[in-house]
Amino acid sequence: MKELIKDFTPLFSQADYKVKRKDVQEDIGYLLTLLNTHQLLVEGGWKLYAEKKGYEEIEVGTEFQKSIPDNKSLSIFLSKYLAHMADEAFQSGETVYAIARALLNFDPEKPETGDALEKIWKENADMIQDLIYLYSEYLYRVFMQDSLKNPTPITPEDISEVG
Questions:
Q1: Which 8-state DSSP code applies to residue 4?
Q2: pTM (2 decimals)?
Q3: Cis peptide, bond prior to residue 156, ω within 30 of zero
Q4: Per-residue pLDDT at 162 exceeds 50
Q5: Residue 122: which of 38, 31, 34, 55 has the closest Cα?
């Protein structure tokens, strides 16, 4: 898996770091929500996801995270950040868009939307797990590793397969 991650450290100057810190913190919140969604859907399907209200936004109001995103916001996150990464690493960008659409369309009052979400999620559970890993590694490299020397920011779109 590590061979799929381009070495892009260090990434930000001290000034860039302060500006980007908030964005990275929000991305960490999305990543944690994605991990929670993944666990709920894989372990208990859409019924557990609905029972635990994994699709609702929850205000937490901490410095780290203002709220836990709802399924619609998480869908946008998947489309905006992880679809390109999936395309680069696994040639599966369209699959991530389809997962994002199923997540966006999820309505706990409509079992057919739950069945569709659960089906596509479980069919792609390994890839989703790998994407969670890749994106967490990306965030780690952006935010944690001696990333204060190079003023050139990088985006998830810059990640490409190495090899």
A1: G
A2: 0.73
A3: no
A4: no
A5: 38
